């Protein structure tokens, strides 16, 4: 069993292979110098210094040796030959496989802003990126311009501000996060940021990143503002790492197209995590999730499928974020929320509420902010597909289980 990609998906798949009793050889090919780590703390607790290295490890460093799993760190896979059942490595060696999992994740989207090559301009995906940024931000007093108003841009903005830096944030939305959760709810996060002193310049982008002596000094926005900057972080989404799969002739469709069991167009090759676009049995539509819970769930399903078991990725998508004192969890089918009505239970102004997206009388997604232990009930509302009384849904006195 060969796994390309030493992220959370790859680690979970290796662990599942062993848990399911597979005793043969397992190799993880990982191009980063680290053993597998998870990324959510990189823009939150690890960046702020509240969490250490341990928070990054889904499996203890000793687990791999104890379970006879080989991790080839700092080793990129450069080609997959489906006919020969081999993976070529950057050092020229080839690895044979019986079943292969491609879990190569995603990379930051690169936009050729003028001045993007200046010293002080950063992308943000890896542990190395977070370590470098922590060193820069922890002393405070920097002028950071964030480009990108999505989850990662907002998280880095919050952490940087908490560390005492000046933060301005640009993005293409009128309200941050509105593509994901709409303007009303994005506004709750925006208000918390503004209260903490984050300056939003929305909607806008960078017309030019300006510098002196090769180092960034300011950002000229497309709205004509000049924002002082000695640091710029570009966080404008990610693109799936499909190169190997494409070259191997696998079907590509917004990532590597896979069945509900995560099989690619080659029966011995599977794909999971951020790189995989899988057919979801509930929506009967393809969805590519770029979230932590999907890395775990799909890593498990892929491993079981590699072992010939009947496994399907049918989880309700889930993710979370932490920004200042706002903790949030979300479950549901984002693609179905576009035409849905939003029903709020609780107090938006107090930032303690659950928001439900209701489409044709049924809950298709739910998000709890600073209210806890309600995810099971939210997922049950979604998965049961039962019609709901929206007045009861909005009433905190009616238990969710009774709706
Ligand atoms: C800063 C940050 C914060 C996040 N916060 C949250 C959050 O709060 N909540 C949430 O739900 N999700 C969050 N996410 C998303 C979550 O981390 C991803 O969904 C998850 O990392 C996907 O795991 P993966 O293993 O599929 O991919 P990755 O984590 O990208 O791992 C893939 C690995 O494969 C390697 N690789 C690629 N090509 C090759 C090759 N040819 N050979 C060898 N190795 C290769 C890559 O270098 C990488 O190490 C966050 C992501 C980031 C970057």
Walk me through the structure:
The chain has 403 residues and is α/β, with parallel strands linked by helices. The protein folds into three domains: 2-107 and 238-306, FAD/NAD(P)-binding domain (3-Layer(bba) Sandwich), CATH 3.50.50; 121-234, FAD/NAD(P)-binding domain (3-Layer(bba) Sandwich), CATH 3.50.50.60; 325-402, Enolase-like, domain 1, CATH 3.30.390. Helices cover 24% and strands 30% of the residues. It has ten helices and 26 strands. It has helices spanning 8-19, 45-48, 61-66, 127-137, 151-162, 178-195, 243-247, 292-306, 375-384, 390-394, and strands at residues 2-4, 26-29, 69-72, 77-81, 86-89, 94-96, 100-102, 106-108, 121-123, 143-147, 166-170, 199-201, 206-212, 215-221, 226-228, 231-234, 238-240, 256-258, 269-271, 276-280, 285-287, 318-323, 326-332, 341-347, 352-359, 362-369. A five-stranded parallel beta sheet has the order 3-2-1-7-19. The protein has a five-stranded parallel beta sheet with strand order 9-16-10-11-12, covered by helices on one side. Strand 11 (166-170), helix 6 and strand 12 (199-201) form a beta-alpha-beta unit. It is globular. The structure holds flavin-adenine dinucleotide. The site of flavin-adenine dinucleotide (FAD) has 36 residues, from helix 1, helix 8 and strand 22. This is FAD-dependent oxidoreductase. Keywords: FAD, Flavoprotein, Oxidoreductase. Pfam families: Pyr_redox_2, Reductase_C.
Features of this protein?
403 residues, alpha/beta, FAD/NAD(P)-binding domain, Enolase-like, domain 1, 3 domains, five-stranded parallel beta sheet, 10 helices, 26 strands, 24% helix, 30% strand, globular, binds flavin-adenine dinucleotide
């Amino acid at each position: 069993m060969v796994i390309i990609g030493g992220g959370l998906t790859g680690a979970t798949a290796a662990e599942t292979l062993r848990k399911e009793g597979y005793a043969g050889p397992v190799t993880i090919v990982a191009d980063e110098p680290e053993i597998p780590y998870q990324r959510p703390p990189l823009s939150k607790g690890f960046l702020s210094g509240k969490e250490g290295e341990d928070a990054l490890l889904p499996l203890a460093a000793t687990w791999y040796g104890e379970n006879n799993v080989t991790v080839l760190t700092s080793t990129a896979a450069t080609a997959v030959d489906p006919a020969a059942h081999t993976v070529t490595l950057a050092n020229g060696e080839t690895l044979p496989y019986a079943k292969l999992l491609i879990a190569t994740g995603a990379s930051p989207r690169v936009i050729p802003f003028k001045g993007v090559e200046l010293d002080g301009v950063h992308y943000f995906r890896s542990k190395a990126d977070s370590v470098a940024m922590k060193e820069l931000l922890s002393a405070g007093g920097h002028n950071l311009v964030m480009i990108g108003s999505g989850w990662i841009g907002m998280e880095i903005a919050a952490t940087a501000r908490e560390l005492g830096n000046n933060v301005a944030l640009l993005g293409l939305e009128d309200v941050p996060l509105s593509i994901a959760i709409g303007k009303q709810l994005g506004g709750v996060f925006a208000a918390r940021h503004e209260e903490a002193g984050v300056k939003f310049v929305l909607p806008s982008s960078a017309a030019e990143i300006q510098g002196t002596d090769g180092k960034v000094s300011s950002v000229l926005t497309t709205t004509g503002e000049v924002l002082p900057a000695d640091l710029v972080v570009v966080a404008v989404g990610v693109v799936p790492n499909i190169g190997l799969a494409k070259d191997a002739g696998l079907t590509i469709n917004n990532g590597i197209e896979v069945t509900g069991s995560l099989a690619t167009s080659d029966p011995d090759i599977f794909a999971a995590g951020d790189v995989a676009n899988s057919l979801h049995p509930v929506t009967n539509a393809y969805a590519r999730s770029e979230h932590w819970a999907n890395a775990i769930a799909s890593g498990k399903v892929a491993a079981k499928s590699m072992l010939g078991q009947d496994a399907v990725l049918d989880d309700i998508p889930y993710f979370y974020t932490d920004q200042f004192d706002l903790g949030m969890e979300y479950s549901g089918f984002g693609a179905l929320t576009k035409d849905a009505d939003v029903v709020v239970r609780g107090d938006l102004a107090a930032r303690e509420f659950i928001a439900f997206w209701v489409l044709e009388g049924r809950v298709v997604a739910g998000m709890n902010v600073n209210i806890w232990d309600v995810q099971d009930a939210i997922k049950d509302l979604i998965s049961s597909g039962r019609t709901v009384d929206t007045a009861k849904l909005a009433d905190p006195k009616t238990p969710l289980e009774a709706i």
